[in-house]
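Intended use. Records like the one below are meant for learning the mapping from a protein sequence to its folded structure. Do not use them to infer anything beyond what is encoded.
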Amino acid sequence: MKILLAVALAAVVIATAAGCGEPEPTGTPGEPGYAGEIAETLLQSLINTADFNAFRELFDTESQKNITEDSFQQTHEEFRSTYGEYSSKEFTGTRENVEEVYTEVSYKAIFKNRPDGVTVKVLFLEKDDKVYASGIFFQEL
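Structure written out for the chain above:
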């Protein structure tokens, strides 16, 4: 099982190697309206632009405490060298009530070095009438 980004941004690297939990159930709900734009900004800022502030501001307060600029930069460099430039994503599924509080939204993301795609899962948390990212995980197809 992957570790939430709230524990540390370095968990993204661990999560990549470990895979991500259970397979997508069939007949899942559609993509939540908020998810696509947040996921796109996370991928662009982490992989393509190395924009620490744009990435970090999308996370809940607790997660933000664990995302340091150094760990972000290290993760960016590792992902950029492994995957290459991010180009696009396609929604593949939603799981609600993950660990009773999160919504997990999955995408097939295309990268220069992974033209067949990588599964990217983003955990979302609704809190105080706002939606925040709480984790982002990468899994080889």
